[in-house]
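step=encode ok
step=design start
structure_in=
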């Protein structure tokens, strides 16, 4: 049954079977999980020297919209069943701008290194959203990125931030620092009448 949750993959590792079995169990409570497929599961515990198990679940890019709708319900359930910190990201491809099959061909913006790295970070912190980003340079010339997250998501995200930071560093070689702040964006309702000044 676990093999049904994997996209174009016949032989599964023991870790992938465990995650696949957990997803099939979750299907009974969250029906949208039936449409969610998984590409692979990678164990990052040894690479980042974490005390708790950290697994990165890679999903095909077409399944990302399904995952974003159910991420707030799915992640706690999956972590409870697998007993590890679960990070989910879509599989994206970086293309070189020099490799072309035709000389008039241009690379899509979604395949650039910057776009892929930003998309990866958004996936890792889901279901929260990024309020702001700053690039900072230390005295010795090294860069780090300060990411501002919504204060209302602090309780759910705080225990996962170290894992997110370390896995992102392994995947992209970029240093991150997270800060929580209040979202002060004010929205105007559609159809609201403007008050004319006298």
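sequence_out=
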């Amino acid at each position: 049954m676990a093999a049904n949750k994997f996209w174009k993959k016949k032989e599964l590792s023991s870790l992938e079977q465990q995650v696949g079995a957990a997803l099939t169990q979750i299907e009974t409570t969250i029906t949208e999980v039936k449409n969610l497929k998984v590409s692979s599961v990678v164990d990052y515990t040894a690479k980042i020297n974490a005390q708790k198990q950290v697994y990165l679940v890679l999903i095909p890019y077409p399944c990302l919209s399904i995952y974003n709708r159910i991420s707030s319900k799915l992640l706690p359930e999956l972590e409870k069943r697998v007993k590890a910190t679960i990070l989910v990201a879509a599989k994206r491809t970086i293309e070189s701008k020099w490799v072309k099959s035709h000389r008039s061909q241009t690379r899509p913006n979604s395949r650039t290194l910057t776009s892929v790295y930003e998309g990866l970070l958004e996936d890792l912190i889901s279901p929260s959203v990024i309020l702001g980003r700053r690039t900072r340079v230390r005295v010795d010339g090294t860069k780090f990125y300060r990411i501002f997250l919504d204060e209302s998501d602090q309780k759910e995200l705080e225990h996962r931030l170290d894992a997110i930071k370390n896995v992102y560093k392994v995947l992209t070689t970029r240093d991150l620092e997270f800060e929580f702040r209040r979202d002060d964006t004010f929205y105007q309702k559609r159809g609201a009448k403007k008050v004319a000044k006298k």
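step=design ok
step=annotate ok -> The first helix runs from residue 14 to 26.
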